[in-house]
Specification:
Order of helices and strands: EHEHEHEHEHEHEHHEHHHHHH
Helix content: 40-55%
Oligomer: single chain
Strand content: 5-15%
Largest sheet: 8 strands, mixed
Radius of gyration: 23 Å
Length: 301
């Protein structure tokens, strides 16, 4: 089948290539002309505006968005005037599920269909396939099933229709909250081993060891082993951890639902802690210890 792909970054570009390898026709559009030109070299057809993209697709169209959550609204505003009743829009990015529900209602009012697809797989998805969590009306999800099957690791695994509009992004949000916790657990464990200097542990060796037969083996551990093999000390990596929003949303959802999620919450807070270079809170604690107990305060050199 054919589709328009808007957003050709690390995820969108690789997904477009995987779809083309499966025989699907891709009309590619992005914010920059250079991104479109690079995709044309890989077999896509160019579209340098939303209007051109819509004009190159046969109605009823399928347009797949792979853009940052904060830009979805702007992209839709530029796209919708060029679509017609019966067209289908897919949001495969990491939008907040509440925004997705609202957008689904808005598009339905325009006679359009909307599917949200939470997408996991990162830069490895091109070769390994993606995990796809789809939310939407049965008929709309069924219409893009050939695309989901092509993107997934196999036609019968790695993708699922998980519920109505918004469900795909909700499930992906929780997925990323779990991801936060798993990464934090690995990080803390390897940090403890790194600190136990008397054993002179080879952390790459331990990571490789745990990959086989261990109950904590996982793809994240595979990636840890690869990273430690390249740079065991991680000396060239700054201790600053970014977040793209899903972990915050998952923690907020836990509060809203009155469900305890301490691992996700503390993992998020640890990420925020990594960015506090001045660490005013630690300075204040040091001062308070000095005030009540006469403890030594280490001064800046």
């Amino acid at each position: 089948m054919e589709l328009g792909m808007i957003g050709l970054g690390r995820m969108g570009g690789n997904m477009a290539v995987r779809l083309m390898r499966a025989g699907h026709r891709v009309v590619a559009h992005s914010r920059t002309r250079q991104s479109v030109d690079r995709m044309v070299e890989k077999g896509a057809e160019s579209a340098y505006s939303p209007q051109e993209l819509a004009g190159k697709l046969v109605p009823p169209r399928v347009v797949w968005l792979m853009v940052p959550a904060q830009t979805v609204e702007q992209v839709l505003e530029g796209l919708l005037p060029h679509l017609a009743a019966g067209d289908l829009v897919v949001d495969g990015g990491n939008s907040h599920y509440k925004d997705t529900v609202r957008r689904g209602e808005m598009l339905e009012g325009c006679g359009l269909h909307f599917v949200d697809v939470g997408t996991s797989g990162g830069v490895w998805g091109l070769e390994e396939g993606y995990c796809l969590m789809a939310g939407g009306w049965d008929g709309a999800v069924g219409r893009i099933q050939p695309l989901l099957e092509a993107l997934a690791p196999g036609p019968e695994r790695g993708w699922a229709h998980v519920g109505s509009v918004g469900a795909g992004h909700f499930v992906k949000m929780i997925h990323n909250g779990i991801e936060y916790g798993m990464m934090q657990a690995y990080a803390e464990g390897f940090s403890l081993m790194e600190a136990k200097r008397e054993f002179d542990l080879d952390l790459h060796q331990v990571a490789e060891l745990w990959r086989s037969g261990s109950v904590i083996r996982s793809w994240l551990l595979d990636l840890a082993a690869e990273a430690l093999g390249e740079d065991p000390t991680l000396a060239n990596v700054a201790p600053y951890v970014f977040d793209s929003g899903e972990g915050r949303w998952a923690v907020a959802e836990a509060i809203e639902l009155d469900r305890a999620a301490p691992v996700m919450t503390m993992s998020l807070l640890q990420r925020l802690r990594s960015r506090d270079e001045a660490s005013y809170s630690d300075r204040l604690v040091a001062v308070l210890r000095s005030q009540f107990g006469g403890h030594r305060v280490k001064t800046e050199e």
